Give the backbone structure.
Amino acid sequence: MPEAIRAAQIQEIPNHGQLAVVVVDTAILLFRHDDEVFALDDVCTHTGDPLAGGDVDGYTVTCPWHGAQFDIRSGKNLRMPAVCPTRSHQVQVTNGEVFVTLRDWP
């Protein structure tokens, strides 16, 4: 079973915002929505550019490069030009520490 890796402290992630981190050589974008934290690969599947810096509205992040949108809870692509999801990862928050377990592609 994959290992949960400490990625950040919850207070480092702005509420309704994001934080770019690296977990085991993988660029990850952490999102905080009130008491929930989500993790996606920091990559837009349209061109491979980072999602970091894109607008977050509710549970949707918009790629800052070409406007593709993804659901921060699942990585599902919501708007073109991206036609594929980005990978989501399991997140656990314990005593204010955020742990990420990297998932393989299905």
